[in-house]
Structures are given as C-alpha cells and as structure tokens.
Specification:
alpha/beta
Length: about 150
C-alpha cells in the first residue's frame, strides 16, 4: 500500500468516532422535553463528559435497538460506555452499574417520570417512591429503590 493510501485508510478508520467520541454521552429524547435537559445537566456535571442530545421523533425504534423494554419507557434514552439508561436514572446508580457490569444487564431504567427523580425535582412537591430496574438478556430485576 502506498503511503497516501495508507494514510487515507487510517483516516477512514477514525471517521465514525468523529461523530461522537467514545467517552461522550448520547441522549435521544422526546423532542422539546424540558426535564431531559435538567437530567442531562446533572449527567454532564457528575460524569464530566460532553453530552450530545438528539431530538428523536422515532425514539421508540431507538429504544428497541438498545434493548429497552417498552414497559420501562420514559422520555429519554442515554448511551454511556455501551450501556443504555432509560429515563431519570440517578447518576449514582449509573456509575455503580458501569463499574460492576453485572452479567446479563444491558442497562437501567426508571419508567415514567417520577417526582423527585433526577431532573424531576420540584420545590414544594413530595418525592415519589420509584424503582430503578436493571434489564437485559438476563431479564429484569430491581437494581435500586428511591424515596421509599
């Protein structure tokens, strides 16, 4: 292979990573959802990473490709280090699952939009109890409970 051909091949290998770096966070959200921005601000601060937000009118298809069960749906889906996080998952739970990488777990989900979950804090409102559900090829199980 000639030197210019070799350099071109190397550049092409790096092209897909130019769209989003390996340590960046990708978030697909329901278009215009404001609570997603509050949650993303917490992710940005606590992970110290760039977050790419995509308004996605076909997010259900994206959720399906990431293995998110429809029953656990919320308003946004984030991909961090190859794991999926659906909805208002607390950052501490995200960091724990990313560190532990339990067998059979593809991600974590908080179904709906419970008051008091990250991004859903509202002054004067009592936080709701909610579960963080681990999902993946190993099935579903409660990973953490909050406000209970």
């Amino acid at each position: 292979m000639k030197k210019p051909d070799f350099l071109a091949a190397l550049l092409m290998l790096g092209a897909p990573s130019a769209a989003i770096a390996a340590n960046d966070v990708l978030v697909h959200r329901d278009p215009g959802c404001g609570c997603c921005e509050k949650w993303v601000a917490q992710v940005r601060q606590q992970f110290g990473r760039h977050v790419k937000m995509v308004d996605d009118q076909k997010r259900a298809a994206f959720q399906k490709t990431q293995g998110v069960p429809a029953a656990l749906s919320s308003c946004h889906t984030a991909i961090i280090d190859g794991m999926a996080f659906e909805g208002h998952v607390p950052i501490a739970d995200m960091k724990r699952v990313l560190t532990q990488r339990p067998r059979g777990v593809k991600g974590l989900a908080v179904a709906g939009m419970p008051l008091g979950s990250p991004g859903m804090e509202m002054a004067g409102m009592r936080p709701e109890a909610y579960d963080v559900i681990a999902f993946g090829p190993g099935g579903r199980r409660v990973f953490a409970r909050h406000n209970g």
